[in-house]
Design a protein that fits this description.
2 copies of one chain form a homodimer. Chain A is built from 23 helices and 15 strands. With 611 residues, the first copy, chain A, is an alpha/beta fold. In chain A, helix 7 links the parallel strand 6 and strand 7. Chain A is globular and about 85 Å long.
Amino acid sequence: MDSDYGVPRELSDLQKLRAEYIPNLPSCLQGSSVGVEFGDRTTTSDPSSDHVIRRLFPHTYGQPLAHFLATSAKGPDAPIIRVGVVFCGRQSPGGHNVVWGLYEAIKAHNSKSVLLGFVGGTDGLFAQKTLEITDDVLSTYKNQGGFDMLGRTKDQIRTSEQVNAALIACQTLQLNGLVIIGGSTSNTDAAQLSEIFAEAGCVTKVVGVPVTLNGDLKNQFVETSVGFDTICKVNSQLISNMCTDALSAEKYYYFIRLMGRKASHVALECALQSHPNMVILGEDVAGSKLTIFDITKQICDAVQTRAEQDKYHGVILIPEGLVESIPELYALLQEINALYKQGVSTEKIPAKLSPWASALFEFLPPFFKKQLLLLPESDDSAQLSQIEMEKLLAQLVETEIIKRTKEGTYKGKKFNAICHFFGYQARGSLPSNFDCDYAFTLGQVCYHILAAGLNGYMATVTNLKNHASKWRCGAAPLTAMMSVKRWSRGSGASSIGKPAINPVKVDLNGKAYELLNQNAAKFLSDDIYRNPGPLQFSGPSADSKTITLCVEDQDYMGRIKELQEYLDKVRSFVKPGCSQDVLKAALSSMASVTDVLSVMTSPSFSGHQPM
Amino acid sequence: MDSDYGVPRELSDLQKLRAEYIPNLPSCLQGSSVGVEFGDRTTTSDPSSDHVIRRLFPHTYGQPLAHFLATSAKGPDAPIIRVGVVFCGRQSPGGHNVVWGLYEAIKAHNSKSVLLGFVGGTDGLFAQKTLEITDDVLSTYKNQGGFDMLGRTKDQIRTSEQVNAALIACQTLQLNGLVIIGGSTSNTDAAQLSEIFAEAGCVTKVVGVPVTLNGDLKNQFVETSVGFDTICKVNSQLISNMCTDALSAEKYYYFIRLMGRKASHVALECALQSHPNMVILGEDVAGSKLTIFDITKQICDAVQTRAEQDKYHGVILIPEGLVESIPELYALLQEINALYKQGVSTEKIPAKLSPWASALFEFLPPFFKKQLLLLPESDDSAQLSQIEMEKLLAQLVETEIIKRTKEGTYKGKKFNAICHFFGYQARGSLPSNFDCDYAFTLGQVCYHILAAGLNGYMATVTNLKNHASKWRCGAAPLTAMMSVKRWSRGSGASSIGKPAINPVKVDLNGKAYELLNQNAAKFLSDDIYRNPGPLQFSGPSADSKTITLCVEDQDYMGRIKELQEYLDKVRSFVKPGCSQDVLKAALSSMASVTDVLSVMTSPSFSGHQPM
């Protein structure tokens, strides 16, 4: 298998040009020396999960935030270290640059240090198959898409066999650090590994890096994940091309399903970029508990209104996670999943469904039945990329429009739909400048986390909507991003899941969603399609960022730091010896602040979750 | 309906930047004055069709080639003219620039001249729905994709009602010229219209422009068509992303069907750009009379060989025209088509098929049967964009691999295929610099054709592989591109079709095909995937051209002109009064030249057709 790697590559002119691109670095990493400052000890963002996580992660829970800053102080010479890196999640544009950034930082601090890449992803980790990263290996992968420099296999390092194999690999290879590149699943595994390694007295420190095109690894510490920018740009280009096409021919509705797993971040961003007529966000559907018939009716009403304006074309975006957001389909999938867990074989499942689930199942067209019956994925979700929700909706809309035509309520021309699935064709793209810079910086941050001896952290780069020179580098404990899911199982009983870094859904109170909502009516009726065009690497549009990133309030890490500075200032103003008046003012202000915060952080307070 | 047009458009930053792009013009169009020179009278490229075409096109057959050259002589002031322009074919990137180029040339020669765009394509022509083209109308469509400035409807102007409506529109609107933008079908119609207009004494001159993303409007006079460059670049980007993706995950075969109608030009060019593992050209299949089982076997053998190298991924390109290139499927489609023409309804067709066709039909999976039974298109071909040939092949390959696994001949892991259709997502793209320049130049040439009073011509720009300043502008009679198809109907009888500008297939003796053939084995086994990346508008790769264009011998128009210069030189050397020796040398050389040419142009000579 090693022979696959190191095969000479034939780069196009543009690829060669990209290989010469030097990523922008934040100013804190530009100097010769980087220092670390620690913040307060962390909690978890969901207070009700706190005690569970604290109990299960005794070695890695509650560690402080870390901030990396340029220092003039030259520290002692860096020791020789050995680091392993593994691609765990699905391929996302920018992954190679994490490895490159890590390599550059390691070698800059001690040229005798070694970076080993695990060949073939997690399987390579378990089997200790490595490739030493060198300038030569990297030369044709700098700023290039895919994960093909090393390859990837499964997403998970979860079973005790897998965890043991990882432990043995790290010990055998005498690694000081293991860097795990992936999404929420992989970073959940990174949290578990770091705890187990600490428990086992293994010296290998585990660091996670947020790399997932879905954009659903996102929280106070992580503003966006590597790959999301590129994926949204490539998909928006294609969606916009479809809009132009629809408007040129004026006879088709294009139903486009987009990759992005359970959350609708990709669909939301693409809608903000391209202005299609409609986007059906899974979060909206789940929030309003819309059934498949409600959604069909919504689309039909839109088609009918447009027909009254003599418009017979349109573009409708559908996130691949939609199927799990529709209550009755989700319940059906849950039943199927449960039957699989009981060992029921595929062909016997339909007969074992509950009466209502069976009625729904029978109503669905054959192609869709077959897709619902596909074996669930490793994270228990349905095989979202294989379920053609766009086809089901197009068929239901067509049937309903025919019915309305017969009833005389729809008087327009024939409704024509063409279905598409956009996903794979964006995933291997050359990464955007933003993803190149962000990934390269994260890679460097990984080195500084390991150099500081930290275990169970995720590398963070924040303040991303500003120029790269102003980005802030830090690290946040993986446990601080974890939460525990609860399900009610009817009759008052409830069960809880394992602590995990759960994929984050689109925030229906967020600014990106608000922006979409403000424009939804215009998008629907006015065809104000907008084409961001193909991803550019030079010229004014080359450094654009996602709209989601730009409109959201971010820089949580910066604000946490700012708060600390306020607290320090209070302490320095109110040193023993200060006047009675100053002390009194401080006391009454602080009493008021703590009152407000104690209310806001109590479990009964129903304000928005942060972000 | 007019209200659709002139709606304010919201352009992205990149679209705005593109709207500022000034297309490059050939030097012959850069001066203030352009002159026309005529070449010899033309024939048709297929000598055996010549008499048919000559008889059916008495007014427009045999007109000379025209060459446009910069002149210093300032001609008389240009008269006021009125010109109509209509989008006929399918939307291809660059279409708007033809209108822009035409507008600029018309207005530069007389600001009182008028350009009318027909709104809604051919339907607008028939109904005399027009929009006067102005700077304001054009401002947001310069260098932009789609045909949405005016829209398009059907491809054809063919029935006598349609032709009459077009004639009445041109007369009513007092047009001096009608410019038809489209592919081979539309330009065939342009030829017919120009003949009928001439016969009817209508003053409107008809000009065709080669605009089709399929790249199949191509002959001695037309080196490539507008849109082909962009489509191939956008598709190559996506195919390359799939290659990177396949190589990263190492577990899927991607079967990708590409738009391009009956010919495989798009698939060939994309293969040369992206180096996928396999491309199945329709022309190859038809040439070797491969059955669907032969093709399945070819793919299975490739999968098996790769499995022996521990490779379980790959990318296979399939042109949408493949289904009509496979002998038995083509025959089946012909039977279905014939039954439709006899008025048989869809559901009754299967029962009326001949025994062998019925056997094949029954063997095919249900989804494919349904697609084969779709009503044929206006040009009698199957609905190629709706027939999922890639899915059929993937299924057949999977079945065969399972069979080989049971027999023990295939020992590898499970074969996994994922199918895609790339077409619509490229068709609305922002046009490449090449397509912007080429289309704008063609638009200007249209003006000069009309100014020269020519009817029944296609605008031509040649020598395209060189820099735009060196391009040659001209015009070729549409009749010179026509041929007549012959079908043998068994038992010695044969029938002939109407003269048409027929879509040109990939030349299996051409240099592009040769290049593919030389590399096919490497592509298959070595995964030397190449990613040309997203279409760039600045930087070194922005001015790249298709490989097909660059490797082929072209500039036929330039060579025809060069030959004329030789003949002129002979005449001037051998003026009466020259020496006996000179005359003798000239005579013997010319005798030898004419001998060779008379052999080469005789019907029995079996050399390659030009191009």
